[in-house]
Amino acid sequence: MIAASWSEGAATPTIERTDTSVRNYRDDMSASLEEWWPRVSQRTRDWLIANNGDAVTAPVIEEITRVAGSVATDAWWVGQNGPTGVYLSDEAVDWIEEVANGEMPDLRGDN
After folding, report:
1. I want to staple 31 with a disulfide (CB 3.0 to 4.6 A). Which of 19, 64, 68, 83 is the partner?
2. E strands, the chain, where?
3. How far is it, in rounded angstroms, from Cα 62 to Cα 109?
4. Whole-model pTM?
5. 35: burial class by Cβ within 10 Å (0-12, 13-18, 19+)?
6. How far is the C-alpha of 88 from the C-alpha of 48, rounded, in Å?
7. Spatial separation of the C-alpha atoms in residues 67 and 60, rounded to whole Å
């Protein structure tokens, strides 16, 4: 599972990877991108579209984890931690680009 974390004034948020063998009820309810996308604010969706492919800011990560619950490290839309922060996967970037272009992306259905 992953959890967003950052300290006050930190330049970049990080994703903490924890032992996935210990799960709780909320962990099993992790939402896929298609599920959390309509649940985050329009402001967050606009930011993700405008900054698609960039490191995701701490407030955006916080909102995603608030609406999606604990996120599985193997969720298809989870990318990597980089030197400038947390990134979505290439597939997630493509999915967001399709939404931005008014297309209807394929539903993945897996986290």
Report:
1. 68
2. 2-5, 14-17, 78-82, 85-88
3. 22
4. 0.71
5. middle
6. 10
7. 11
